[in-house]
Amino acid sequence: MAAAAVSESWPELEQAEQQRRRELLLTGPALEKRVQAAGGRLPPRLFTLSLLHYLEVSGCGSLREPGPGLAQGLPQLQSLVLRRNALGPGLSPELGPLPALRVLDLSGNALEALPPGQGLGPAEPPGLPQLQSLNLSGNRLRELPADLPRCAPRLQTLNLTGNCLDSFPAELFRPGALPLLSELAAADNCLRQLSPDIAHLASLKTLDLSNNQLIEIPAELADCPRLKEINLRGNRLRDRRLEKMVGGCQTKSILDYLRAGGRGKGQGKGRAEADKEEGRRKRKERRKREGGEEEEVDEASRLLLRVLHVSENPAPLTVTVSPGVREVRPFIVGAVVRGMDLQAGNTLKRFLTSQTKLHEELCEKRTAATIATHDLRAVQGPLLYTTRPPQDLKIIPLGRKEVKAKDLVRQLQLEAEEHRKQKKRQTVSGLHRYLRLLDGKEQYPCLMDARGDVISFPPITNSEKTKIKKTTSDLFLEVTSATSLQICKDVMDALILKMAEINKYTSEDKEEGSISDTEADATSGQPPDAGTNASAEKDGAAPLVVEQVRVVDEEGHLKVVYPSKTDLDIAASHVTVIR
User: Fold this and answer.
1) Which one in 101, 314, 360, 576 has a CA-CA gap of 20 to 30 Å to 496?
2) Residues in a beta bridge with 320
3) Strands 394-395 and 403-404: what pairing?
4) pLDDT digits (tens, 9 = 90+) for 498-551
5) Is 260 within a domain?
């Protein structure tokens, strides 16, 4: 009887075993209750599914540790995703050896430490010999295990964003320790120094150390032979010239400056670029009244966001939510952003790329939340967030002709399967996993405008009618989720912050004749435009205006308003929100 009860309580495991599945996704309220009943662990039977290549257990606040048997029972596992659970403060037992594992995602948990030889796997022999991607973002880590390079010697991507790290272990930058590491992200930590030994990361291409407490950047960083993109914004660097450069110059100019020895020692092109930056800084200072130099420099480098309250807006946009979405995709947050400049160079491409990156990371490949951006001029309010039967819901998807929702989903699933076959994979890629979120649903969610047109079909697509163009300056943003309201707000915060960054640096490049964006100008074939932003040159870049959008029920009762007083509460030192 006990065995039968266990089988009934975990029908996904029985189905996976019978169908010899290689992919398993566990999430939702039912999972929460079963894990809680199991003492915060996963059932041992899960670790007998030896054919699994992909395992994801996400969004379970009761899951405190995976449970014994993981490493021994899943020898073919290639991707293990345990994000947005309650793992921590440590991990026991260790997650290894897993000889075939390539992707490990432990983001959004409560991990405080991964002690040496525990938590990830044994260092000798390597417990994760094929691991390529490790995501530890959104935890509470204070340090990394020193033997991480020995445990995962083939690591290519390491994401440590949003932790409490104040330093990297010396072993991370030991010569030959991580010869394949190409992407290192450690934004939003407490890092105080960066070792010159980082130059030993011979394959490093992307480095994000934004919003830390760095005061010095070693010149040896310029010796990383493949480094193409760095983000050092939000630090309080002693070298004021360098601090200005990291806010507006391209990576090459920054590396040239470091290579030449920093302030006062630059030569060649790096020195010339630095001199231009210094000249611009002095001209701006002359336009201001006398005051503290540090205060002025900080003010010039900040991103500005102005929030327009509903009461200040003569025609605020409103979203009405029908009761039917409660069973399908209940959470939605909206905002209007005015003042974006998408016309210069490749700015539109950068904006769309940033949206894609948010979908991949914070939105967990659209499984946690989905973003839709609209040209506000093509949106007629008020809006209705409701549901329609799959055979009745019609939309003109981006880049396609009008189609019924059920046909669109089927078509996308066929395309995903064909993509899988072409790539000779055992499972559909993570990029297409969101297509399964609507499996078995009798109603599909959609956002309709006042004309009755469907402008969004989350999490699948939004409409060609409201597509963003280069000429778009005012946008309606929408984030939906089947998981939580808070993830909608977190994603919206991140999206608006990214828009502010893009807008500010686009405006600065135009103000300065695109001196620091010559490669983008050459690519786009457009000459620098020195005259379109005269007011910005006079007064500094104007802030983006974020208008509140109210979400109400059918009786008009308020469900959520964004941004509220607690939203856009950004701790970053380079952001100022004017309310």
Assistant:
1) 314
2) 384, 552
3) antiparallel
4) 998 888 877 665 544 433 333 333 333 333 333 333 333 334 456 789 999 999
5) no
